[in-house]
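Morning F.,

Quick status update on the modeling queue. The single chain you submitted on Monday has been processed. Sequence for confirmation:
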Amino acid sequence: MIKINMEHVDKRAAYGLLTSSVVPRPIALVTTISEDGIVNIAPFSYFNVVTASPARLSIVIGKKMGSLKDTARNVFNNRKFVVHVVTESNLVDANMSAAKLPSNQSELSVTDFTVEHSDTFEVPHLKDNPLYFECVLDQYVSFEDSDMIIGKVSNMYVLEQLLIDGKVDVKALNPIGRLSGNSYAKLGDFITLKRPE
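Structure tokens below.
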């Protein structure tokens, strides 16, 4: 067994070790809107459920040279964002949305995504996405190199055919997980174990 003292590992090496160890990670594809009305789309794999009641999700967004990225700045400015699940059908465009673009250019210009608004939420969602959450900023934690955003879910939207007995049919959803480097994972074989009483 090799001991790695993480306090003495540089940022790049730590990133490689962590992102190749904590796998697969779900991917949040987040839409926000800037003060100038520009739609921003970006993927984040530091993403998870925080609480169920009330429903909360967390996303960690790295800083760019010590400054907020567009997604974090937009969330802090208008407190609203939409989280979509990355699936096999939208992976290519989700990956393209990670392109480094200037703040005044929307990722809509480099992807095939289109957006639409719900009746009650100012931030648009991705049209034809099978599952998404409309979120309002609840809390955030600022770290040296990133910001953790915790959003309270106002509304969840899911295709009716994906719901079975009050749960999402994960196989039909076809979510994609993030591995390390340029690698992603599809769902593999399922293992079912009953929890002990």
